[in-house]
Amino acid sequence: MPADDLLGDLLAVSMTGVIYYTPIYDPAGAGEIVDFRFEYLNPTAQRMMSMPEVPTVTHNEQWPHSIAHGTFAFHVDAYVSGEPREYNINYQADGYDNYYRLAARRSGDGLWVSFTDTADQPRSPVEVALRDAQVREKAARAEAEIQRQRFYEVLMQLPAHVAVHEGPEQVFTFVNPGYQRVANGRELLGQPIRTVWPELAGHGILDILERVYQTGETFSAASMPVQADFTRTGQLEEVYYDFFFLALRDAQGQVTGVLNFSYDVTSAVRARQQVEQLNQELETRVQERTAALQESESRFRIMADAAPNQVWAVNPDSTIRYANQAFLDFVGVSLEQYVATGWSAYLPAEELELAQATLETAIRTRTLYVLEHRMRRHDGQYRWLLAQGAPSFYANGELYGYVGSAIDITELKQTNEQLRRTNVDLDNFIYTASHDLKQPIANIEGLLHAVQHELAPQCRVGEVPHMLKLMQAAIERFGRTIGHLTEISRLQQEHNQPASHVLLAQVVHEVELDMAPLVARTRARVEARIPADVTLNFSEKNLRSVVYNLLSNALKYHHPDRAPRVSITYTPLEDQHMLAVQDNGLGLDVAQDREKIFGMFQRLHPHVEGSGVGLYMVRKIVENAGGRIEVESTLNQGATFRVYFPR
């Protein structure tokens, strides 16, 4: 059998791993071997290394740490010397952790390496147990190192000051950045603490550290004052620290050093001292303020008792604080009795809930308090009172209570009621008189027409035609005046027209249709920009009257030199609807005629036909519904009327 075949069979059955390398030289040409190329691995080597017969990687690529472990140098030496070499190694790198025995010898241009791996051989129970113990020990050491490193990182990152002092001299063996900063450049590591901080010798801190080292007892203290030369200028500075000193022990339990853990709490201590000082000052001011308040309240009660009207004061919870003598005389009890019973015993049951709710709402919103209510006088008669009050505050803005007064308005309400009845009677009279005068006026107008019909043409000479014309005009004005009086009287009687949800755009459109002849006659352009879905909670009849009067005035009082332009717009407000009617007509002198604009029978442009009651009626309608009307105008330029309807 040929020798090559015999070698191949031998390598195939060999129980040791065999590798054949060829050297890789330095490309710079220095002749130095920098790596080896795999040319062949026998089956055992392939199995033990989990590699193919001809790997594509190089020796150093497979084992990057072989240079550091010496195995690469072993291969180079065997090749260069040409002599057999052996090498034993516990290789723990690049994913391997086994004992290897290597034998190498050069053959021609290549290098044969035979190796054994203990992991490939059966191990005795003792060896297995030993290796398991070594693995566990290694894992434990690694875990301990991880924990130590974590603890070290925590200590280094803590905002506190951490140091370790070892031995009887308390020598610094560890300091974190926080401690280094407070040391301000002092040399720490390897130095005894008494050498580093000589100024602490008289403050007891060093003695405490010594006691912890000697006894092993833990020490802790909060906000402990310390005086030291932190700036290294020779000046001692007092600061406050929270201290924690812990004895460190070895495996036998003997104290070897002290862990110094401290935290600068100077800011907190001084802030607390400042707060305590401020509290003391505040308490003094409160006492002074209380005395001043008592004196002020005493003066207030003296003045209130001298007042003819009723004066009262309540606490923020609406309980009675004080009532003056006039109030007590009214109800006929002492202050103690009134405070004990409260005002509920003196108000009618049907008015008590409203009165209490009104006062509580004013207190909650810090607003003025105004209310008319009845209250039982000492003789048992219920009298009408007008009560009003305002919030009173301490200097710091806290609510002190409500102070107010009340006056008896019973006679005033009776007088107003009589006046209201008189006004009703007057309205009824006006309505009746205007209604009854319509027929006589119609009769006079009929008689005038009859006279004109019967009067012969030859008699219509001189001033007769003019006089007849004046009589006809006077009758027409009289009729219009009677009609306006009737309308105004009706408005007074029907101001509480039932409200409903009315589409504003629809009402404006209908009024535009009614005004179409006047629009055409004046060649006006009317633009209404009102969303179709806007609704007002208003009497539809009264809303039509408002829009009609404003639009008709804008057209009637147009400027003779230009065609009328009228804009009707809507603007939603937070708690109101605003309707604006703007024109380019004659305008008004608002500053001069403000009081006349909405007056009854007031006409600011006499040359234009009108009665002077339209704007008066508009204002009455709007104000009766809780709204208001405003005007903005410039004479000869136009006017804008804005009507605000409540939501």
From TrEMBL:
Reactions catalysed, semicolon-separated, are: ATP + protein L-histidine = ADP + protein N-phospho-L-histidine
- Which domain of life, per UniProt? Bacteria
Q: Which residues form a coiled coil?
A: 265-299
User: Could you tell me which Gene3D superfamilies the record lists for this protein?
Assistant: 1.10.287.130, Histidine kinase-like ATPase, C-terminal domain (3.30.565.10), PAS domain (3.30.450.20)
Q: Which Pfam families match?
A: HATPase_c, PAS_3, PAS_4
Using the record's annotation, list all stretches that form the PAC domain. 369-421
Q: Which residues form the Histidine kinase domain?
A: 432-647
Among SMART domains, the record links this protein to: HATPase_c, HisKA, PAC, PAS
EC code(s) of this entry: 2.7.13.3
Catalytic class of the enzyme: transferase
Q: What are the UniProt keywords, alphabetically?
A: Coiled coil, Kinase, Phosphoprotein, Transferase
Q: Does the keyword Coiled coil belong to this entry?
A: yes
The UniProt record lists the PAS domain at 296-366
For this chain, one GO molecular function annotation is: phosphorelay sensor kinase activity
Q: What is this protein called?
A: histidine kinase
Organism, per UniProt? Hymenobacter edaphi
